[in-house]
């Protein structure tokens, strides 16, 4: 830690998740190698807001001009892909934290925003425990 604040663009994790979502198989050692290469840019905290698949699917279906690969699928197929990819996202966040040395803070997307904001305040004030 050099005393600097590093903000992680959600695109970094999202891109990795997209790669995993498209892969029928992948090598954990290759993934770890890729994550290791990101270490110099890795944040000390990764804030992850977890939204249940059913809510995510509702949001996808409500979008008018979505451009993700799930938007181009029939709803039942998109639902199946989203559910299948959920476990990979959990694994990716865990591996990202383990390999880069970051702290993954998991927030519940169903929790009222003010409660999640209070947790972020705790993090910024240094009172939140790792992995909360």
Task: Please outline what is shown here.
This protein has helices spanning 10-22, 28-37, 53-62, 75-100, 113-124; strands at 45-50, 103-108. It is mainly α and 132 residues long.
Q: Specify the oligomeric state.
A: single chain
Quote the average pLDDT: 77
Distance between the termini: 21 Å
Shape: flat
Rg value: 16 Å
Count of β-strands: 2
SS class: mainly alpha
The run of helices and strands is HHEHHEH
Strand content: 5-15%
Biggest sheet layout = 2 strands, parallel
The helix fraction, in percent, is 40-55%
The helix count comes to 5
In spatial order, strands of the major sheet run: 1-2
Notes on the protein architecture:
The chain is mainly alpha-helical. The protein has helices spanning 10-22, 28-37, 53-62, 75-100, 113-124; strands at residues 45-50, 103-108. The protein has a two-stranded parallel sheet with strand order 1-2. 5% of the residues are buried.
Task: Please tag this protein with its features.
54% helix, 2 strands, 5 helices, 132 residues, single chain, mainly alpha, two-stranded parallel sheet
């Amino acid at each position: 830690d050099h005393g600097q604040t590093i903000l992680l663009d959600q695109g970094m994790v999202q891109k990795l998740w997209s790669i995993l979502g498209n892969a029928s198989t992948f090598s954990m050692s290759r993934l770890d190698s890729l994550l290791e290469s990101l270490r110099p840019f890795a944040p000390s905290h990764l804030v992850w807001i977890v939204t249940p698949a059913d809510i995510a699917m509702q949001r996808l279906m409500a979008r008018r001009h979505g451009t993700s690969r799930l938007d181009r699928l029939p709803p039942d197929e998109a639902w199946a892909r989203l559910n299948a990819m959920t476990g990979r996202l959990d694994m990716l966040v865990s591996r990202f934290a383990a390999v880069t040395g970051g702290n993954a803070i998991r927030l519940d997307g169903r929790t009222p925003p003010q409660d999640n904001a209070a947790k972020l305040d705790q993090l910024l004030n240094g009172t939140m425990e790792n992995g909360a």
